[in-house]
Amino acid sequence: MKKVLIGILAVPLFLILFEIFGMIINHASTCIQTNRLRHDIVDAIPNTEIISVESQTGNTTGTGNHVDCLTQITFTSNLSLSDVRDKMDDTYEWNDLSCYVEETNKAGEYLFFLRKRAPFADNIEGH
Questions:
Q1: Tens digit of pLDDT for each residue in 15-58?
Q2: Order of strands, edge to edge, in the sheet holding 49-58?
Q3: How many angstroms separate the CA atoms of 31 and 37, rounded?
Q4: Between 60 and which of 11, 48, 70, 94 could a Cys-Cys bridge form, CB atoms 3.0 to 4.6 Å apart?
Q5: What is the 3-state secondary structure (H, E, C) of the chain?
Q6: Is the pTM of this model over 0.85?
């Protein structure tokens, strides 16, 4: 009887720990993605100044039950928008919904938007 009771109590505990583990991995993945993008921008585009860096882990689209890793970096450059894209073409695949660069309201200022699925995309954070 003790073994059955321990088994019944262990299953919810295991599930809770698994969800917490998934949350930690998802947030670490967002941090890695953000740092990598930041370095890629600075390395690929000369005379770049990072204005702001924002990241978010969770259901960023509001649709479905899934977890995304979202990074938005605003930076300045003397290059045109097409030149900025050309510099980043080897590393990033452009997509209007999950990976793009656009000009902001200020001349020479760009926003790089990158959203990828999290490693534990079905985690509780996506609900």
A1: 999 999 999 999 999 999 999 999 999 999 988 999 999 999 99
A2: 49-58, 68-76, 109-117, 99-103
A3: 10
A4: 70
A5: CHHHHHHHHHHHHHHHHHHHHHHHHHHHHHHHHHHHHHHHHHHHCCCCEEEEEEEEEECCCCCCCCCEEEEEEEEECCCCHHHHHHHHCCCCCCECCCEEEEECCCCCEEEEEEEEECCCCCCHHHC
A6: yes
